[in-house]
Amino acid sequence: MAYHMYVHGYSARESERLADQAQTLTEILHDDTRYPPGSRVLEAGCGIGAQTVILARNSPSARITSVDISEISLQQAQETIRQEGITNVTFRQGDIFQLPFEPATFDHIFVCFVLEHLTEPQQALEGLRPLLKEGGTLTVIEGDHGSTFFHPENPDARQAIECLVTLQHQAGGNALIGRQLYPLVTGAGYRDVRVSPRMVYVDASRPGLVEGFTKLTFTAMVEGVTDEVHRQGLMSRDAWERGIAALYRTAEPDGVFCYTFFKATARR
Amino acid sequence: MAYHMYVHGYSARESERLADQAQTLTEILHDDTRYPPGSRVLEAGCGIGAQTVILARNSPSARITSVDISEISLQQAQETIRQEGITNVTFRQGDIFQLPFEPATFDHIFVCFVLEHLTEPQQALEGLRPLLKEGGTLTVIEGDHGSTFFHPENPDARQAIECLVTLQHQAGGNALIGRQLYPLVTGAGYRDVRVSPRMVYVDASRPGLVEGFTKLTFTAMVEGVTDEVHRQGLMSRDAWERGIAALYRTAEPDGVFCYTFFKATARR
């Protein structure tokens, strides 16, 4: 069985970062996912519920079941949903590789920021497929750290991002998985696979994204692994600090930052 | 005066490549550029007319003036336009840094795949600005080789692309200019600057782009500098060949290829 670990950890600051990220990216990633009233939806890997809130709000009359392997995350997700007054979500603990559901239980399955953490992402998708009713849909959203580019260019910033890719790889994940959604979903036996890239393009004319994405989401995520990078000596402290500074530099009025998420849809 | 050189050269195969490229990318890059009947449009840097044909077809009643510094390119552009039966384009030889027009001559200026070849792109934009009537628009389209990523990953392919960036830099150009359009256009004094990325995302479900973009446009462009790379010894012959093979590999059924163009619009 594949080993699953959430590389970013579960600290309070991390929870905040994920909430920020979810809010800023809502339109770009989620706006075209709306499930009909009464349809049964499985969210596989809900984490602390950052995407669950959006999912439930965009499909207020769908019946959503959100599962995660971590009880701690589930409790937090449950609390978030309660505070938001959302009532169409049920939570259940479970391993994405052996979920406790009968075949053909769901009309739709939604998987967001989960495959990047799995050693066997295609196997996970294969296991989810029988849970869909005939003709049911799969939606997958993933990022891709290798899609990052920015102005001004900076080699230390590039190397800092490479460190993130290395750490995620050590943890059994894949930070470059976004670009691979088409072969993964196709390889798992789904049909009508359609992938669309969702680039987050940030310049000074979009101050919400400068704050919400370049600084509070992406650069905060890179900064989040500072201790581990130093523990392993992946970069010198000076180069690391220059890299982080260079990422913040791209948030200045003449800077530009680009990152691409990928969204795949398919049918059973 | 800045030195201008077209790094890809002017061979017959190159002309073919540019025509292929223009056709495949037409929708992604040009569909939202339509100029009203009777408006005066300047195409600054028309080359062999690959974009001129699209521009003229999409705005059949606009009066287009297309200029280029190269008489050879202009002749070819003129011939292409004639063969296509297009009648709303006038050609004129001129240097983008000192064009022979009165101030406030044009309603719209269009600049496509030109800035990447200039040592002083912002200066060129500054010089174009007075040629616009009050409230007139500027449209700029550029690629960015550093935006390229693909699956399967391959270090030799990355290095081959780096060679292209190096050669363009040697020629006084900038193959990473796409991401810089916002600061460039803003810095040149235009207002209401809006940049939108246009990613060409290619997987096996889009066979036209697999052929027309991954193979016939991008990889053909990289292959086009093989001799110069070897002359300068930028990469070993083996590594270069592995890199080219790896780029073609991304056109296989389980491969993915991504490249981003940027389109800026602004007002005088």
Q: Tags for this entry?
A:
homodimer, 268 residues
Content of β-strand of chain A: 15-25%
In percent, how helical is the residue content of chain A?
40-55%
Structural class of chain A: alpha/beta
Mean pLDDT of chain A: 92
Using a beta-carbon cutoff below 8 angstroms, give the protein chain pair with the largest interface and the number of residues from each chain: A-B, 29 and 29 residues
Structure description:
The structure is a homodimer of 268-residue chains. Chain A has 268 residues and is of the alpha/beta class. Chain A is 41% helix and 23% strand. Chain A has nine helices and eight strands. The first copy, chain A, has helices spanning 12-30, 50-58, 71-83, 121-128, 155-170, 181-187, 207-223, 226-232, 237-249, and strands at residues 40-44, 63-68, 89-93, 106-112, 132-142, 149-151, 191-202, 256-267. In chain A, strands 1, 2, 3, 4, 5, 6, 7 and 8 form an eight-stranded mixed sheet that branches. In chain A, helix 5 packs across helix 9. Chain A binds chain B through residues 144, 146-147, 149-151, 153, 176, 179-180, 182-183, 186-187, 193-197, 199, 201, 203-205, 254-256, 258, 260, and chain B through 144, 146-147, 149-151, 153, 176, 179-180, 182-183, 186-187, 193-197, 199, 201, 203-205, 254-256, 258, 260.
